[in-house]
Amino acid sequence: MRPLSSALLALGLLALLAVPFFPQLVYSIFVMKTLCFVLFACAFNLLLGHTGILSFGHAAFFGTGAYVTGVLVKAYGVPTELGILAGGLVAAALGAIIGALAIRRSGIYLAMITLALSQLVFFFFLQAPFTGAEDGLQRIPRGTFLGIVDLRNDTALYYVVLGIVGAGLWLVWRTVNSPFGHVLRAIREHEPRAISLGYPVARYKVLVFTISAGLSGVAGALKAIVFQLAALYDAHWHTSGDVILMTLMGGMSTVFGPAVGAALVSALNHYLDPFGAWVTVITGLVFMTCVLTFRQGVVGQLGQLLRSRRPSAPAAKVDSRPHTNHR
Amino acid sequence: MPAKNSLKTLMVSSAVLSLGGLSSAMASEGYSDDVVRIGVLTDMSGIYTDLSGEAAVEAVRMAVEDFGGEVNGVPIEVIHGDHRNRADTGASRAREWYNNDGVDMINDLSNSGVALAVAAVADEQQRHAISNSASNIGLTNDYCSPYVTHYTYDAYSLAHGTGKSIVEDGGDTWFFLTVDFAFGIGLEEQVSEVVREAGGQVVGAARHPLDTTDFSSYALQAQASGAEIIGIASTGADAINAINALAEFGVTPDQRPAALLLWYDDIVSLGLETAQGLLLTNAFYWDANDETREFSQRFYERTGRMPNMAHAGNYSSTMHYLNAVEAAGTDDATAVSEAMREMEINDFFASGGYIRPNGRMVHDQYLWEVKSPDESEYDYDFMRLVTTIPGEEAFQPLEKSSCHLLNGS
Amino acid sequence: MDILGIPIQALMGQLMLGIVNGSFYAVLSLGLAIIFGVLKIVNFAHGAFFMVGAFTAFLLAQYMGANYWMTLLLAPLLVALFGMAFEFLFLRRLYGLDPIYGLLLTFSLVLVLEGGFRVAFGSSGQPFATPEQLRGTINLGFMILPLYRGFVIVSALLLCLVTWYVIERTSLGANLRAATERSELTQAFGVNVPRLITLTYGVGVGLAAFAGVLAAPIFHVNPSMGSSLVIIIFAVVVIGGLGSIMGAIVTGLGLGVVEGFTRVFYSEFSSTIVFLVMVLVLLLRPAGLFGREEG
User: What average pLDDT is seen over chain A?
Assistant: First the structure.
């Protein structure tokens, strides 16, 4: 990793660690919510940015994580950490199923299959008696972490969430920078070549789908614990759209760009309240400006800017990645 | 407790104490951060903006101004936020307001999911929340709290207002067009119960997904059912589309639609041509009497629209809260809660209204009928009073509430 | 005679209503299919243009005193012009990039349009009267159909057929198809491809607005009337087969009917059934019902 990036990363981490000490500056629950979306977006980008698969149904995994965790913790008194784990696992299993069906097609067709299946999942949550439909699954107890840390304390919860999200992001980073990740990139760049090189491409795709879905499930589970509720919106296709948006805002050709995108979108949602009814219009204009001016996302563009300033480094060819091949 | 105010507070509260005979717990309290802060958490940008939105904020501001802008010398401040119709966004904003921003009371809370989530936060943080535009009766049952007040109406009052009056009027076979949401299904069940108790009969129901645009298929099903009354258990665009389709396919006059949650604003957007003859239960109508007209005129001048029952409830509940704060001599939530539940509410919105231990504000509800275009004589002249439903009949009997506060534990 | 406990007469009625509803889907998905075929962009703002069409008709009637027939002509034209301006100023900067950027841009436009109309006209919507000449009903024997619904079927199908004819059977359409397949070559033959693309977007958007005006008297005119429509319409296009004009029209009608029957037998599922159909179709026929299998 380049020194500058490391320095930025360290600075970011330090800032995150300090959050609970400055409640008037930034509200820790808002940061926790953002962290959940950070994990969600980075997990999603394993598919979009690193494998070239556009899923338009990731809300299914996010929502599944939230509901499974919520029900287990609330109705069955399962310890919080096991509940979150279960949320992630069930979401991963669902991801394996949906992934196995979806990767039989590619491009826009794949996206539509994921959308359609996630709509079926949504319908299930709408009908299932335990979700409370639009009222949501309310008053999920936060419980304790490992039986020691009382999560009703916001500060304690904050560090637990930070830790879990950090672990999740580390997993994303490891995946991208492993031999497995290199194969994924090969699939993205030129799938027929990856096949002819003898890689079991389909199996790789299902695997990355499963990992992505599982981490999305953990993100949803965390959100359910933080807010003590799981809502229908978590599984709605709007949420699938939101995560695409976050990823593109941050930059899909980077590992942690989506994290910045998630923070950006959350902040827009959080700090635009004074504009009242205009908030939707303003949000739309911001997105429009972003997609027209810095297409590689905030982080991608920043990276390019830094590279082009240093004459030693060759002006990088960061043409936003080759298109998801749609047939 | 801030020192500079202590003497004054002490004097005021002891005065109140001797006057009102309130509990003594509050005498030592004062005003947190020397300001009484009210947050209006509402839908500022989504599908419910007309029902509450900016006008709800304005209603609360009006109440604060009419109160004099300060209570016992402590200034009152109003802030507002947008919950985007998402329970998590609402809960997070509420928590931040209570924890960080010193908000003492949150008002409006349109959208039942948001209201339930904020009620949970209010209970945990021991601060006040008042819902005026959500319908879910969970707020005064499983999710009740000493700090949560359900003020204007609820699903029970809708069901018992509209349902009961219609059955008593002879409309005793029912078919329901229900939105497939907890809200719609709950309402359908409530009304069905009322209909059966009154000797009527429910002949069928069709449950449609949220945001259905084309209701023609359901209009046909309703026609085929032969029921006298088509109960519409949805709200907003769904209810409007359903009513339009029923009118288009000519279900009247043998069959009559009954809207179970229709807002004043929905009638505006339906137009009298289509809406005429509809029956609806609302807690407030601007043109009911001189007092409501006086308030509505002022409201209209500020917002450019006539108030609906939620707006009126926002004003009235804010006023009641401030009166309670004044009487209690503190903004301490427990003391204010006790004062709110002891003081009667008498204003343009309610007469002899009171808040039960489970947080339900009990006051009269009214069954209205929409006028025909010919009967409407001036602008906004839309409804005629059919009957008044006494508060004790309109709301869930206390013994049926599952609220944990009622067990004396 | 009954089928599954429902009289056959009632089912005929539902079939008829399904076709009415399907007419809207047909016009909308036709527009979306044309745009996707030429621009390779998922026009996420399609539902928003549908809404803007209805609102423009409302405004023309309310403030300019236009009668229904004028609004039916003028509103789609105005919205098409707006769409073409949007394409010319913004959308064309994204050609040749991953189509996801086009999706993002048109999604932002949805926020601006829906939010803007909500600020201007409130959230609860506006009444829109059925034109005088089309009030009343016709007796079809098995059901009483409101005259206006009959008008919807006729005008929608007529428009679909005209559009299909222009694209598949005229020289303009031939240029268009050529530009889709071999953009540079077509340009070399002296066809102004960028202008053709702008025009295509205008036509697609205009179709959506036309459906909006058609819908105004029977559906409720409000800022969110198109927001849940777009993914359904897109599913229709995919089921029909991307790039197939006829596929979009036929599938639109078919979905209307399927949805109508679902409302009778399992009403809760009626807004989800299209997705079940889409999964099955895509897994069994990868290029959709009417699409050509490629590569």
Answer: 90
Q: Is B20 exposed, middle or buried (0-12, 13-18, 19+ CB in 10 A)?
A: middle
Residue with tokens 């994990």: A39
Checking if the pLDDT of A54 tops 90, the result is yes
* Percentage of chain B exceeding pLDDT 70: 92
Structure tokens at B315: 């004003």
Chains with ≥3 Cβ pairs under 8 A against B? Answer: A, C
pLDDT at A262 over 80: yes
Residue with tokens 């601060």: B127
Domain ranges of chain C: 17-284
The fold of the B6-153+289-363 domain, in CATH, is: Rossmann fold (3.40.50)
pLDDT tens-digit readout, B270-285: 999 899 989 899 999 9
d(CA A191, CA A200): 11
Domain boundaries B156-275, corresponding CATH code: 3.40.50.2300
Has residue A312 got a pLDDT over 70?
no
CB C43 within 8 A of CB C50: no
Chain A residues at the B interface, defined by Cβ less than 8 Å, are 23-24, 27, 29-30, 33, 126, 132-136, 138-139, 154, 223, 227-229, 231-233, 269, 273, 276-280
On the 0-12 / 13-18 / 19+ scale of CB atoms within 10 A, B170 is exposed
**Would you call B46 an interface residue with chain C, using a CB distance cutoff of 8 Å?**
yes
The residue-averaged pLDDT of B243-268 equals 86
Q: What are phi and psi of A137, to 5 degrees?
A: -90, 105
CA atoms of A287 and A285, how far apart (whole Å): 5
Question: Does an H or E element contain B63, and which?
Answer: helix B53-67
Rounded distance between C-alpha atoms, residue B325 and residue B20, angstroms: 13
pLDDT in tens, B149-187: 999 999 999 998 888 888 888 888 999 999 999 999 999
Residues in chain B, how many? 409
As a 3-state breakdown, chain A gives helix, strand, coil percent values, each rounded to 5, of 75, 0, 25
Please tell me which residue of chain A has the smallest CA distance to C233. A112
Q: Which chain C residue has the Cα nearest residue A104? A: C283
- Given a cut of 90, whether residue A110 has pLDDT beyond it is yes
List CB contacts of A292: < 8 A, sequence separation 6 or more.
C90, C93, C94, C105
C151 to each of A272, B3, B160, C218, how far by Cα in Å? 45, 76, 41, 12
Verdict on whether the full-model pTM lies above 0.90: yes
The answer to whether residue A307 scores a pLDDT higher than 90 is no
Q: What is the CATH number of domain C17-284?
A: 1.10.3470
Evaluate whether A283 touches A272 at the Cβ level (below 8 Å): yes
b/e A102-118 (16+ beta carbons within 10 angstroms → b): bbebbbbbbbbbbbbbb
pLDDT, tens digit, 9 for 90 and up, residues C41-94: 889 999 999 999 999 999 999 999 999 999 999 999 999 999 999 999 999 999
Residue A146 lies in a domain: yes
Residue A173 maps to a domain? yes
Q: How far apart are CA C141 and CA B175, in angstroms?
A: 25
Question: Over the stretch B388-403, which tens digit does the pLDDT of each residue have?
Answer: 999 999 999 999 999 9
Q: Do B237 and C220 lie within an 8 Å CB cutoff?
A: yes
**Interface probe, candidates B88, B110, B114, B123, chain A, greatest A C-beta count within 10 A:** B88
Range of the domain at A43: 27-237
Measured from the Cβ of residue A290, the count of other Cβ atoms closer than 10 Å reads 22
C-alpha to C-alpha distances, B93 to B85, B110, B118, nearest whole angstrom: 12, 14, 9
Looking at the domain assignment, is residue A228 inside a domain?
yes
d(CA C15, CA B270): 28
Å from A314 to nearest chain B CA?
A: 45
